[in-house]
Amino acid sequence: MFKILKKEELSEQITLFDIEARDIARKAKPGNFFILRTHEQGERIPLTIADFDRNRGIITTVFQKVGKTTHYLGTLGEGDFITDVIGPLGNPSHIKNFGRVVCVGGGVGIAPVYPIARALKEAGNKVTSIIGARTKSILFWEEKMRSVSDDLIITTDDGSCGTKAVVTVPLDEILSKDKVDLVFAIGPAIMMKFVCKTTEKYKVKTIVSLNSIMIDATGMCGGCRVEVGGQTKYTCVDGPEFNGHEVDFDLLMKRLQAYLPEESIAINHTRETVEVR
Amino acid sequence: MNTMEAKIDEKKTKLRVEMREQPPLVRARNFMEVPYGYTPDEAVEEASRCLSCKNGPCRQGCPVEVDIPGFISLIKERKFVDACYKLKEKNALPAVCGRVCPQEIQCESRCLAGKKGKSVAIGNLERFVADYEAEKGDIKIPERPKSTGRKVAVIGSGPGGLTCAVDLVKAGHQVTLFEALHKPGGVLIYGIPEFRLPKAIVEREVEYIKKLGVELVLNAVIGKLHTVDELLDGQGYDACFICIGAGLPMFLGIPGENLNGVCSANEFLTRANLMKAYLFPEYDTPIKRGKRVAVFGGGNVAMDAARVALRLGAEKVYLIYRRSEAEMPARKAEVHHAHEEGIEFLLLTNPTRFIDDGKGNVCAVECIKMELGDPSGRRKPIPIKGSEFQIEIDVAIPALGTRANPLLTKTMLDLTVNKSGYIAAEEGTGMTSKKGVFAGGDIVTGSATVILAMGAGRGVANAINDYLKWKYWEFKN
């Protein structure tokens, strides 16, 4: 059992938890993720490690309430327990002084970008961060991102905060003006796809972190397979980070929808059982 | 003919007491266990067929050397609980082995009663006494031996790890069993379906092992959470046994394999068994309930996947195998059950590509007919040109076996692995190139059976006992 030490509503749909997980915190690195199972009947889902505190034995995660499990997770509060927390999983980000780096975070993807940007900054890179969301009310961590970036650019689709644009607009501007050595992009698959299309024009290497469907996340089920450079790879053990220019995003997006019909059955089932009670 | 021979002859011709089973078409739609198990009278009747051979040829067929004539004699005397204790002297998982061991190629193949009629149903009897003991609640916990002060880490709580942990704890060592998943049992929990091995039985056997004094740590992915070096150096373990199985599923490598609706047998079975997706939406994990399902492969896992698909409500389940039924590696009983339940076998058939419905889902598979080549050795299937045909399906499940999972071994640069990623370990002792580290089971041999992993666990436990005494290490590969 793993205790939730802190809960913070970052926006209407996005929640932060600090979870007591001493061993995982000791080993976690930027780029890692973990798996949780909320209760006996629950499913296993991967979530990002948005931060960690080795001294206090805490990992921080940020999640968006989109499916059955994340909605249920959102009903838990400080002092509640999560049955299973497994990690740290996946390969950590490759951090070194690349020179000039742009970190792009979209939506809930801002959370995992934060520790990467921080590590890149600490390694001596000049870090420009671009964070974007649909609208201001679901944007979070502007100040945290600013604190680890040399420059921070904010975009919203509706212009309610920062520039009215999608993240690729300022990215394109930067790439057309300056020499950039590396781009990190984490967010919805569609965003990462268009970030890669943008950077491809300028031949700037781009690392993306994929959010495939997983069960065990140790290489056992193969549910998270993606095509990278024409080869089948497992997001859980080969990734989650890949060279974005080689990722088949269309396949990823289709595979992310594999269980959509079941997802709505699950959500309806919860609604019905709650109403009966 | 003397009287002894006559007696043997009479016993040999006595008919085997078969276990009653759920009717095929009923069980094909539920997840309850297929056989009902023996009644005490049936067990005694079956036990009476045992010739109580002095040298017990059956024992030599058992990888963990269970005293088979010994426990069967106790059944004859209706001392069922004592029979179970006798079994547990050598086998900590009798209820599991009674259900999933390939007895027909092990103990039962050596049975003298089998020379004329059918062999004694050793597996059925094993299952009976284990279930009897559990039901009567007479589970005896042997006294803890004096502590040796030594600590051993066992990585992987599958059948090999469980067996090794029990032997070590009985020898007085402190044993920690690390499991990556949230439930212990390895393949017994995630792989073998409920109707073949009820999960309550695995839980029961694991509870017993915990009571013996084994400390179980779940959710511990060794290589990520702790490395083996950290266990040996920082955390004070004197030895370490790696029995993590061969976890990576193999795929066909044909076009369309990443379409939705195509999943490995590992994924399909993990959803159904570990996550209980057959109870969706009571349980949250979904599973694709195909109308027309194709499973590819001829092993036990393929049979399990096909039979799970049927129980999830499929109208049609095809089992597609590139060789003929004679070459199938599955247990005979599983093939028989699959036939009875209405699985359609498409033999000498190989898939060539999966076809997209235009929305990213599989809607058909193209196959080609095969013929068997040169009869020397295991006959190689060869495609017959121009024999391609298509089958409409909505779920496809490759069950082609597994490969070594590098997750742990790649964190151990001083551990010798072969080019396929399996750990190089000495046969019998499991000693590896790294002092204090032993390995066994599928991560050494490649995909095998529950009982072979248990045999490996037993051998390694003996070797660890020796090592902890003498600290002598010599790795011969």
List key phrases describing it.
A: 277 residues; 5-stranded antiparallel beta sheet; globular; B: 477 residues; alpha/beta; 15 strands
Could you please describe the fold and organization of this structure?
The complex is a heterodimer of chains A (277) and B (477). With 277 residues, chain A is of the alpha/beta class. Helices cover 31% and strands 31% of the residues of chain A. Chain A contains 9 helices and 17 strands. In chain A, a hairpin with a 6-residue loop joins strand 3 and strand 4. The longest helix of chain A has 17 residues. Chain A starts with a strand and ends with a helix. The model of chain A has no long low-confidence stretch (mean pLDDT 94). Chain B is of the alpha/beta class. Helices cover 35% and strands 14% of the residues of chain B. In chain B, the strands form 4 sheets. In chain B, strands 3-2-1-4-15 form a 5-stranded parallel beta sheet, sandwiched between helices. The N and C termini of chain B lie far apart (53 Å). Chains A and B meet through helix 1, strand 8, strand 15, helix 8 and helix 9 of A and strand 5 and helix 14 of B.
Topology summary:
The complex is a heterodimer of chains A (277) and B (477).
Chain A: E1 2-9, E2 14-20, H1 22-27, E3 33-37, E4 44-48, E5 51-53, E6 58-64, H2 68-75, E7 81-82, E8 84-89, E9 100-106, H3 110-122, E10 126-133, H4 142-147, E11 151-156, E12 163-164, H5 168-177, E13 182-186, H6 189-201, E14 206-209, E15 225-228, E16 231-234, H7 235-238, E17 241-243, H8 249-256, H9 260-276
Helix pairs in contact in A: 5-6, 6-8
Chain B: H1 3-13, H2 24-27, H3 40-47, H4 57-60, H5 68-76, H6 80-88, H7 94-100, H8 107-110, H9 122-136, E1 151-155, H10 159-170, E2 174-178, H11 187-190, H12 199-211, E3 215-217, H13 228-234, E4 239-242, E5 248-249, H14 265-274, E6 292-296, H15 300-311, E7 316-320, H16 332-341, E8 344-346, E9 349-356, E10 362-372, E11 381-383, E12 389-392, E13 395-398, E14 402-403, H17 406-409, E15 437-439, H18 442-445, H19 450-470
Parallel strand pairs in B: 1-2, 1-4, 2-3, 4-15, 6-7, 6-13, 7-8
Antiparallel strand pairs in B: 5-14, 9-10, 10-11, 10-12
Helix pairs in contact in B: 3-5, 3-9, 5-6, 5-9, 6-9, 7-9, 10-19, 14-15, 15-16
